[in-house]
Amino acid sequence: MSASEIILSPWARNISPSPTLAVDAKAKALKAEGKDVCGFGAGEPDFDTPEFIKQACEESLRRGDTKYAPAAGIPKLRAALAEKYITENGVVGVKPEQIVVSPGGKFSCYLAILSVCGPGDEVIIPAPYWVSYPEMVKLAGATPKFVFAGDDQGFKITPEQLKEAITPKTRLLVLNSPSNPTGALYNKAEVEAIMAVAIEAGIYVMSDEIYEYLLYDGVEFVSPASLSEEAAACTITVSGFSKTFSMTGWRLGTLMAPAPIAKAVASLQSQTSSNATTFAQWGALAAMERPTEAKDAIAGMLKVFDRRRMTLLDGLNAIDGIRCDRAQGAFYLFPNIGSYGLSSTDFCAKLLEDELVAAVPGVAFGADDYMRVSYATSDEVISKGLERLARFCQGL
Ligand SMILES: *Cc1c(COP(=O)(O)O)cnc(C)c1O
Is 242 in the pocket of ligand 1 (CB under 6 A)? Predict the structure, then answer.
């Protein structure tokens, strides 16, 4: 078959590559050419994985944990995760069989969606949203329905907005708090109000908690599944080790759901990817079994992130024409650049071209008046990048 004769499936034809990974790749390519790029595109912490986790993985490798593991994960890790959700998050009576360890939080999200959504179903996705949710929903044959929440409402949808968006076809609501790309965090009252609407309507909630430990200003994280038995019964909680422990390359995600859903997810996983890498799971187990070291590692990272967050936030808000919300989670800020009258794609392309500053256009997240800037980068890049951005904005 010649290249011109290749006919792709509807799934392959309609999917676009992740735009956040694309921006990062472009910035890295320019850097490789020797250009002095200030990269704000990163979707991963710029720290190394804590040494004690690497060591546990290495020992596991030497021990010979190089074979298949059970599809849902090694029993010790599933048990440790069940225990974590009980003691840390306050979810009642979680059993190991409710836990699935997957090859990445991203895959956990995909399997969560696949396990409850199919053709004809609608999935409510608050916008700005993480780029992969709509594509995953479409791969499941379902239809994404967006509910927009701009910076005027702190990037959080209201229970009224949710109620209005629900139809008889609605099957699932996607919640991501703290959020990528906005860093917004739903507080307890807000989570309660959203969950009350979801429970009343009889829909599922996928709670993406990958940033649960990356919190600032002393705010508290609330897991929807911890609110009540009814809340736990309709919630699929997804997370992973990537962001908390700088383990993006390890590909380790987690999922907690009512047992029948977890069982279905494990089956889907066993037929598509088998287990998450065996020795990587043993490394992750160290993060669960050695809480003091784990907490120290997180605290060290948070201190640095918080300092950068404040520098970036103040620098952005000092620019005439930019307005930026004080996000309290993750490692992103999502400034409003709508006053310049450019599309976010044009703004970011021109910014990269003129000033070698890389940021992700908001349109990728369903919000064209914004751009995403990640502070998972050095203080030096942040101050230099801010200077360049200020000059760029002045010239517009
Ligand atoms: C990074 C991220 C994930 C998952 O990342 P993995 O590396 O696949 O574990 C999931 N959800 C959001 C919102 C993220 O930003």
Answer: yes
